[in-house]
Amino acid sequence: MAIIRDAWSEFDDHRPYQPPISEIVRELLAEPLPESGRPPLQVLEEARTVLDQSLAQPRPRWFAFVGSSGLEAGVLADALAATFDINLASWAEAASELEDVALRFVAEFVGLKWHCGAFTSGGSVSNLSALAAARERALPGSRAAGTGGLRAALYCSLDAHHSIVRAAEVLGLGSAQVRTIPVDEDRRMIPDALDEAIARDRKLGIIPVAVVATAGTTLTGAVDPIADVAEVARRHGAWLHVDGAYGLPAAALPSMQNVFAGLNQADSITVDAHKWLYLPKACGLVLVRDPDSLTAAFGHEESYFPHVETSTHSADRTLEYSRPFRALKVWLAFRLHGASAFRAAIERNLGHARLLWSLVRDAADLEAYRPPQLSVVPFRPRVADVDRHTVRLAQALRVDGRVYVAHASIDGAQFLRPCFVNFRTTDEDVEALLSIVREVSAKVR
Ligand SMILES: Cc1ncc(COP(=O)(O)O)c(C=O)c1O
């Protein structure tokens, strides 16, 4: 408990540098399987040392990828869930009912009118689950017969997360059947291009299984025009999935309603509580409009798992059997803090992105990609040989260790790509990012 408490209070402030892996830790990690037990306090202290020399996302200056904040309520919920170790494959009484409540909390938070679904390990598995439901609807019986001989395709923007391609591979549709639709200058899917791609395929007898709109791309935070994409999908009879793994919590803000317009026209959505709902990993949700669609994809009867007391088991709507009680942390966090605290924290993160954008826009020595739609702000220094310099700068920043920011390639151009999804981040951290980038950039050769 003391280790956890100390870490929490340390996370409230930024770290002066990231400690390198010490000799002590290297020796610990080289250890063979212990034959006999060690003193508990010593072993826990060693675990703390290993963790301390690892990159922890909850720190306020961790701006890489799409982070999370390790919200304390989530840590406590995980400890409680592990203690009670409930079996969620079948009906587990109050815990199973709580799962449905937590799904409803998140649905309500983002303004969704339906709330049937499942908890998953994250965006990748949520996307896969939703697309499994879409495949079964477009190609009835394909979960049993396979898709051999069937010609079917998925549609998503050029910037959709790679988990969509993976889902196509795992579901037997094939990554070659994922049509990447061009984006506009704000990197939002172009609905007319989507329409043309589906129409072209249909003429060839290729069945449109699903369109995936991204509500917050990983690369730049672009939100596809969901209402227009929904209209195209509906016209062609395709399932609409909205991948809001990163961005969808921002739909909870009244000021963002226009950005996410059309969300309720989706057939399914993905949202990750371990991203912009600040909870520790791994906690994703998939929500579907038609409650039967997940059971159509995953429902089954096995002699060792009979439906006696209830007509469905939880495992009839998820990929997993044994799984952690992820819903508990969502339920506990919303009950402890209230939805308003989450909205306020998301609003602050949007403010961090706007602050960084305006500072970069007004600086002669820096260049930003585009104004942020959500909380990703790609930017880079204005220097000679800028792409090579930016990659080296990202490496140098990692060695420096005061901020953690990854670089990303946008149409082949290299940018630093900070993403603000941490409730611990302050305006001062944003300003520090710029001054550290300038300082380190000056030393990069
Ligand atoms: C838009 C989007 N979809 C899916 C994913 C995959 O999520 P996970 O890492 O939880 O599987 C990510 C991860 O960053 C994402 O940004």
Textual characterization of the structure:
The structure is a single chain. With 445 residues, the chain is an alpha/beta fold. The protein folds into 2 domains: 242 residues, Aspartate Aminotransferase, domain 2 (3-Layer(aba) Sandwich), CATH 3.40.640; 105 residues, Aspartate Aminotransferase, domain 1 (Alpha-Beta Complex), CATH 3.90.1150.170. Helices cover 42% and strands 12% of the residues. The protein is built from 15 helices and 11 strands. A 7-stranded mixed sheet has the order 1-7-6-5-4-2-3, with helices on both faces. α9 runs parallel beside α10, α13 packs parallel to α15 and α14 packs across α15. The radius of gyration is 23 Å and the shape is globular. The mean pLDDT is 96. Bound molecules: pyridoxal-5'-phosphate (PLP). The site of pyridoxal-5'-phosphate has 13 residues, from α6.
